Amino acid sequence: MKEYSLLKSYQEQPNVWDEMFGADGVRPSYKKFVSAVEDLSISEMNHKDELAKKLFMSQGVTFTVYSSGEGIEKIFPFDIIPRIIKNEEWKLIEAGLKQRLKALNIFLKDIYHLQFIIKDGIIPAQLIYSCPYFLREMMNVDVPFDIYTHISGVDLIRDHDGVFYVLEDNLRTPSGVSYMLENRTITSRIFPDLLPKNNVLSVKDYPDLLFKSLLSLANRQSSDPRVVLLTPGIFNSAYFEHTTLARLMGIELVEGRDLVVENHHVFMKTTKGLKQVDVIYRRVDDEFLDPLVFRPDSALGVPGIYWAYRKGNVAIVNAIGNGVADDKAIYSYVPDMIRYYLNEEPILKNVPTYQLADGDHKKMVFENMHNMVIKRTNGSGGYGMLIGNSATDEQMNEFKIAINEDPRSFIAQPIINLSSTPCYIDGVLQPRRVDLRPFAVYGPEGVDIVPGGLTRVALKEGSLVVNSSQGGGSKDTWVLAEQQGL
Amino acid sequence: MLSRVAETIFWLGRYMERTDGMLQILRTNYISSQDAINDLSWTPLLLTYGELSAEEIRKIERDSPKVLEYLISDRYNGTSVYNNVRQSRENARAIQDHITKEVWQCLNDFYHYMRDPNFEKQFEDGDPVSTMDLLIKQGLLFNGTVKNTMIRDQGYTYLHLGKFLERAILTTDIVRINIRYHNVKFQQRVESPALRYLLHSLLGYEVYMKTYKGNFNPDDVLEMAIHNSYFPHSLVYSLYQLNKYFERLKPESLPESYEEVEYLIGKTMNTVKYSNVEVTNQKMVNNFLQGTRNQLIEIGNCLGKSYFGNT
Q1: Does pLDDT of A89 surpass 90?
Q2: Do A258 and B105 touch (CB under 8 A)?
Q3: Which of A11, A453, B61, B179 is the most buried (most CB within 10 A)?
C-alpha cells in the first residue's frame, strides 16, 4: 500500500474485500478521489466532518428519539468518504436488479391470481400460506398495469471475492432514498469540484422518475390527476423522507385523517371541500392501511380505502400484500422464480439460505451455529437476528428454543464477510463494513434505477450489522460514468 | 389546500407572532424594571404567560433573571418563548412541503439556538437585553425569509391570517395589562413612564414621537394603539391586514364558509373603527378591549369551523 499521509495507518482486514484497496494498492476507481484528499491535514478533514454534521442539523435532516418526554434531535451518522462503484459493476447490478424485480413482480401477480408457481411445484404451498404477509384479501385483485413492486430497495452485499449478493428484497415501503439525495448534496458542499472531476453520475432525477411513474398509474380520465403521499405523521422516524419526497415531487403530503372514502372513492379534506385522490404513495404499512379490513385499532389508515383500491378507483403504491415476496423464507426461491418465469439464469446471486422448517437443515445449522446468521423471516431493522461468531452460548440456546417452537419463522445463512471501506473516524481512516441499497422505480414503461443508492455502514468496529437502529450510518455512493474507462 | 395543512400553517403564523410580541413586551418590562423609581412586579406577565400558582409567583415576581428564564427558556412552561418556537418548528415540520426550505431552516436554526446549553446561562451571567435582542432578530429574520422566499399562495395567506389575528389580540392584551397593572392613569392626562413603556411594548415609541411631536398625552397614545392605520401594531391596521388576506381566499373558499368569516371580520372592523373610547373612563376602555378580544377569538373559532374542519 502506498504511504499516503491520510491512508498510512489504514489496516486492511484479511479475507475481506476492501472497496478502496486491492492487492496493488488503491483501486483505479478511487485514485482521483484519493489524490484529492490524501494531502489534507487532520484539521481540514475534521473541519469537513464537522461541516457535514452541521449541514445535516441545520437542514433538519434528523430523526427524533423520544426519551423522558422530550424529543432529542439526532442526525443519521454520515461518513464523509464516499463509496465508489465503477461503471461495469453498476451495469451488472442494474441488469441483475431489473431481472430480479421483473420476476418478483410476476410472482406477486401469480401468487394472488392463478398460482402456477405452486401448481408446478416450484414453491411449496405451505410456505406461501404460512407467510404472515400473504394477504388473502389481495386474491384476485387486479392492480393497475399488473405492477406490484413500484418502489423497491434491494440490499446488496459483497463477499471476500468481490462478488455481489442479494441480501434481502425490500418490496414494501423501503426507506433511505432521501438520504441518498441528501448525502450527495452534502458531499458536493464538503468536497467542492470532486463530483464533476470524478465523472460521478447524478442521482437527482429520482423524484422526477418517481413522480412520472406515480402519475402514469392514475385511472381517472383527468388532465391533472391528484397524487398524494400518505405518511403516518411527524412521529414516524422516516418523516423527514416523506416531507422531502413530497416537496421534491410537488405533491400533497397527507395523513390518514386527511382522507375520507365516499362511495368507494378516496377524497382529501381541503379548505374548499372534498377533492378526489387518484394515486396514493403510501408510507404506511399494509396492516395499518384500513381499519375495516386489517388492524381495527389503526388510527393511521383510512377506513374503506381497501375497497376503493379493489374497485380500481385509487392506485396504491406499493401494492398491498407485497410482504409475501420479500419474506426471508421465500427469498431462497427467488433464483428459482427467475428461472421459472423468465427462463433466465439469475445475474445476481442469493446468499445460500437454509429453511429451518426442514429437519435436515435445522440439524446442520444447529451443529454449525457459530458460522451462521439466523434471522426471523419477518424481522427487519437488524432486530431478531443472531450472528453466530459473536453470540454467547446463552443467546444461541435461546434461539434454539425459539426455532424448535416455530421453525417456519427462522432461516439461517452462512456468515458473509461484508466488504469494507475506509471511514473517517477519530481522525484516521478505519475499515468498516458496508452494504448497498439501490432504489428502483417500476412503472408501466419498465424499471428505472438511479445510478447510486444508499451505502449503509456498520460504524461499530468489527460489526456486520448496518441498520441505523443498530448503530449504522451511511455514505454517499458514487457510480462513475462509462467514459472514464474504469 | 388540505384543512389540516391550512390550520397548521395558520397556527405557525400565530405562534411566531406571539413569540415576537412576548419578547418585545418582556424586553420593555425588563428595561423598566431596571428603572429605580419604578419598583416593578412581574406578576401581570407571569399571570399572562406562565402557569405558576399565586405562591410561586410571589416568590419570583421581583427577581428579573429568574422571571425571564421562566418566561423565555423554561421547557416546562408550556407558554414560554422556547415552547412557542418549539411548537412553531413542529408545525413547520408537519407542513414542510408548503413552506420553503429557507423558512424551514430559519425556524430550525431558531429552535437549535434556543436549545444550546449556553443559552439559558445568558440570563444569569450576561445581559438579558442582548439575549432578547438576538431572539427578536431571529423573529425578524423569519418574517423577512417568509416575505422573500414564499410564493403568494394559500399557505402564505393562512400564515398571515394567523399573524395578524394574533397581533390584534396581542395589542388588546398589551394595552389592557398596562392599564390594569402599570398605573397608566389615563384620567390624570399627564405623561408617565408607564405610557412610554406601553408604546415601547407595541414597538410604537418612535412612531409616536414622530407623529405627535413628542407631545405625550394618554388620548393620543390610545388613539395610536387603536386607530392609527399607518402604525403596524394598531388594532385597525391589524384588522385591515386580516381582512386583506382573507379576501384573497374568496376564490378558494366555499361561499357559505367565506360569508360567515367575512361577516365576523367586518363586524369587528366596524366596532373598532367607529369606536369612541373615552380615556377618562377606565372601565369603558377595559370593556372595549375585552369585547374586541372576544370578537377576535370568535373569528379564530369560525375559521376553525368553516375552513379547518373543526367541529
Answers
A1: yes
A2: no
A3: A453
Average pLDDT over residues A105-126: 96
Q: Do A60 and B154 touch (CB under 8 A)?
A: no
Q: Which of B2, B8, B115 to mutate to test the interface with A (most CBs of A within 10 A)?
A: B2
pLDDT at A4 over 70: no
Cis check for the bond before A318: say yes or no (omega within 30 of 0): yes
Q: Give pTM, 2 decimals.
A: 0.82
Residue-range definition of the domain harbouring residue B123: 1-150
pLDDT of residue A291 exceeding 90, the answer is yes
Task: Give the model's pLDDT for residue B191.
Answer: 60
Among B1, B4, B158, the strongest candidate for a mutation testing the A interface, having the largest count of A CBs within 10 A, is B4
**Is the CATH code 3.30.450.40 the one for domain A355-414?**
no
**Is B154–A271 a contact, with Cβ atoms under 8 angstroms apart?**
yes
Q: Are residues B263 and B283 in the same domain?
A: yes
Is residue B279 domain-shared with residue B146, that is, in the same domain? no
Give the model's pLDDT for residue A1.
42
Q: Which residues of B touch A268 (CB under 8 A)?
A: 2
Please tell me which of the candidates B3, B93, B95 has its beta carbon nearest to residue A269: B3
Residue B15 and residue B124 in one domain: yes
Q: What residues of chain B lie within 8 A of the CB of A239, using their CB?
A: 93
Identify whether residues B303 and B187 lie together within a single domain: yes
B198 shares its domain with B244: yes
Cα–Cα distance for residue pair A437/A239, rounded to 1 Å:
19
**Which residues from chain B sit within 8 angstroms of residue A58, using beta carbons?**
105, 108-109, 112
Residues A456, A458, A459, A460, Cα dihedral to 10°:
170
B144 & B193 share domain:
no
Number of domains into which chain B is organized: 2
Q: Given an 8 Å threshold on Cβ–Cβ distance, is B249 in contact with A57?
A: no
- Which of B150, B184, B207 terminates a domain? The answer is B150
Where is pLDDT greater, at A42 or A207?
A207
Digit-coded pLDDT (tens) for B147-187: 999 999 999 999 999 999 999 999 999 998 887 765 555 55
Residues B168 and B66 in one domain: no
In this prediction, residue A178 carries a pLDDT of: 93
Mutating which of A75, A271, A281 best tests the B interface, going by the most B Cβ atoms within 10 A?
A: A271
Percentage of chain B exceeding pLDDT 70:
95
HEC assignment per residue over chain A: CCCCCCCCCCCCCCCCCECCEECCEECHHHHHHHHHHCCCCHHHHHHHHHHHHHHHHHCCCEEEEEECCEEEEEECCEEEEEEEECHHHHHHHHHHHHHHHHHHHHHHHHHCCCCHHHHCCCCCHHHHHCCCCCCHHHCCCCCHHHCCCCEEECEEEECCCCCEEEEECCCCCCCCHHHHHHHHHHHHHHCCCHHHHHCECCCCCHHHHHHHHHHCCCCCCCCCCCEEEEECCCCCCCHHHHHHHHHHHCCEEEEHHHEEEECCEEEEEECCEEEECCEEEECCCHHHHCCCCCCCCCCCCCCCHHHHHHCCCCEEECCCCHHHCCCHHHHCCHHHHHHHHHCCCCCCEECCCEECCCHHHHHHHHHCHHHEEEEECCCCCCCCEEEHHHCCHHHHHHHHHHHHHCHHHEEEEECCCCCEEEEEECCEEEEEEEEEECEEEEECCEEEECCCCEEEEECCCCCCCCCHHHCEEEEEEEEECHHHCC
**pLDDT value at A9 more than 80:** no
Interstrand relation of A164-168 and A349-350 (parallel, antiparallel or unpaired): parallel
Smallest CA–CA distance, residue B249 to chain A, in Å, is 10
Is the model's pLDDT at B190 over the cut of 60? no
Q: Is B164 in the same domain as B293? A: yes
